[in-house]
């Protein structure tokens, strides 16, 4: 073992992408194993690697961790991205949960039937502009800091940055009414670890394409 965290998932974003983002933001290098067949997935289950028979799987500090939320909170705690006290942690949790709700819509979008794509895209746009982004615009404006919680970089900032870029891929002008988020995006993009992750050739995955959707359906078919 090299000591690097080892990530097992498909070669695409899915539920592993926030984990890649958080490790990269913390400046942690990691290894990846890509599932390409149902047999590989079934073997992980048979060998007892997957507690709930689900990926993502992250091997870190001698543990075989599953469940995205548990993985992310462990990484955030380990690398000091989880606030200074219980109150800050509660705020980070609230923000992260809210962003995860928006990201769930984006996660499922590639699997929409063709006749539902436009409706689902409208729904993402409406929720981003009217429900989710106004919250973070207000938080940044009210306490006048660079980051969402306290004045310290945290898991919530990483997750928000990922969400902003994911929504912008589908709706390029989505931040036009959110000046604070525009400033936040620029600042975050220039943080050395995130800047590195946004460069070509980094472990960041491209938007899901037809091949990714096909692989997901093949690996996880019942």
**Widest sheet: strand order?**
2-1-3-4
- The overall number of domains is 2
Task: Report the uncertain regions.
Answer: none
Number of DSSP E strands: 4
Helix content: 40-55%
Q: Assign the CATH topology of the largest domain.
A: Glutathione S-transferase Yfyf (Class Pi), Chain A, domain 2
Main sheet? Answer: 4 strands, mixed
Shape call: globular
Write the layout of secondary structure elements.
Layout: E1 6-9, H1 17-25, E2 31-34, H2 38-46, E3 57-60, E4 63-66, H3 68-78, H4 86-108, H5 117-143, H6 155-170, H7 179-189, H8 192-197, H9 210-219
Parallel strand pairs: 1-2
Antiparallel strand pairs: 1-3, 3-4
Helix pairs in contact: 1-3, 1-6, 4-5, 4-6, 5-7, 6-7
Keywords:
7% strand, 4-stranded mixed beta sheet, 9 helices, Glutaredoxin, 2 domains, Glutathione S-transferase Yfyf (Class Pi), Chain A, domain 2, 222 residues, GST_alpha, alpha+beta
What features would you describe in this structure?
Residues 85-209 form the GST C-terminal domain. It is an enzyme of class 2 (transferase). It is built from nine helices and four strands. The chain has 222 residues and is α+β, with helices and mostly antiparallel strands. The chain folds into two domains: 6-79 and 198-220, Glutaredoxin; 86-190, Glutathione S-transferase Yfyf (Class Pi), Chain A, domain 2 (Up-down Bundle). The protein has a four-stranded mixed β-sheet with strand order 2-1-3-4, covered by helices on one side.
Brief write-up:
This is glutathione transferase. This protein is an alpha+beta fold and 222 residues long.
